[in-house]
Amino acid sequence: MRKKLLALYDDIDRRTHATAEEHAWWPCRRGCDSCCHRLAEIPRLVRAEWELLREGLDALAPNVRVEVDAKIAELAAAEREGRVPRHVVCPLLDEREGACRVYAHRPGACRTYGFYVERGIGLHCGIITEAVAARSPDEEPIVWGNAEGVDYALARLDGAADASAAGVSLTTWALSSSSCSSEVKEPPPPEPGDPSSPSSEM
Ligand code: SF4
Question: Which ligand 1 atom minimizes the distance to the CA of 103?
Fold first, then answer.
């Protein structure tokens, strides 16, 4: 599973790097943490993603880990009490540095966001919408990635047939592992799809 996940992440990273390199104005760069401040929901991960992410968490300095675990616990409490904010600040974001604390281990959704579309709808923020609208008409068309293909590939790693129901939330994974940091226990099973990878242009 890990090998397949890493191969999928490599494909995504190659595509996103190529897109950013082909368009010098592309806003997704290190230093922009806008999307990590405004998540539509608590990040969801399939098991292989969680196992990789957990390695990143386990490599954090102890004091940083305490801070991250506290943020995850706080978010989990908000989830239990039905008070998750409309825009979730990712508990893995270093808000002082504006950087992901587990960048090399981050989930697939974080890798595709900004560069992929789902059924023709761009999965990106307003900064990209404006930049795309302002680009020169002489520019090469943008080749967006197909987010559904990624979702199905991740779901297959979990043995799930329904990509929309695959994975569980970061908080659920974290709380189901002992003190957020060692052996993975069983989270609620994902509910049980296959388009692959054609891209759309804009
Ligand atoms: S895991 Fe990292 S890249 Fe993904 S939303 Fe959180 S801080 Fe941002």
Answer: 2
Would you state the pLDDT for residue 193? 40
In angstroms, what is the span from residue 162 Cα to ligand 1's centroid? 24
Q: Using an 8 Å Cβ cutoff, are 185 and 174 in contact?
A: no
CA neighbor of 75 nearest in space, from 184, 172, 142: 172
pLDDT score recorded for residue 106 = 96
What's the 35 CA to ligand 1 centre distance in angstroms? 8
Residue ranges, the chain, pLDDT below 70: 178-202
Q: Using CA positions, which residue lies closest to atom 4 of ligand 1?
A: 110
Between the CA atoms of 152, 155, 161 and 165, what dihedral angle is there, to the nearest 10 degrees?
-100
Residue 110 Cα: closest atom of ligand 1: 4
165/8 Cα distance (integer angstroms): 19
Q: Write out the two tokens for 104.
A: 């090399």
